[in-house]
Amino acid sequence: MLSFERIPDQVGYLVMTEDGAVVSSSGELENGERIANVVAGLISLSDKVDPVAFPGDKGFKKITVNYENHAYIICLSNKKVYVVKRRTHPQAPLDADLTS
Q1: What's the rounded Cα separation, in Å, for the pair 77 and 18?
Q2: pTM score of the predicted model
Q3: Which of 59, 67, 80, 96 pairs as cysteine with 92 (C-beta 3.0–4.6 A)?
Q4: Burial of 27 (0-12, 13-18, 19+ CB in 10 A)
Q5: In this structure, how many other beta carbons lie within 10 angstroms of the beta carbon of residue 73?
């Protein structure tokens, strides 16, 4: 069994079946049916991406959705979808160094 508590800055997780049913959840994603629906839609959308523009016959390995203070990491493994919400540490924009 995966130990989500060992993931640095993890604030919640969600495990789903490939069809979007929630198997387990914890932290900020506990009972996260809405997030599960959004993730299922995102996965469905990624499966429809133009294969000419994005070659690869096996689909995605990992999807990361970044926000200012957190990120969602989505992975598919053993017919399960794993979603982890992690705190991120905001960084100054790269052009901020140029104006100083």
Answers
A1: 10
A2: 0.78
A3: 96
A4: middle
A5: 17
The burial of 11, by beta-carbon neighbours within 10 Å (0-12 exposed, 13-18 middle, 19 or more buried), is given as middle
**Structural domains for the chain:** 13-87 (3.30.450.30)
- The per-residue pLDDT for 6 is 78
CA distance 40 to 17: 10
- Give the N- to C-terminal CA distance of the chain in Å, as an integer: 49
List the chain residues with pLDDT less than 70.
Answer: 1-2, 48-59, 92-100
Write out pLDDT tens, residues 7-22.
Answer: 878 899 999 998 889 9
Q: Which residue has the tokens 């993730």?
A: 39
**Which residue reads 């070659």 in tokens?**
55
CB 17 within 8 A of CB 79: yes
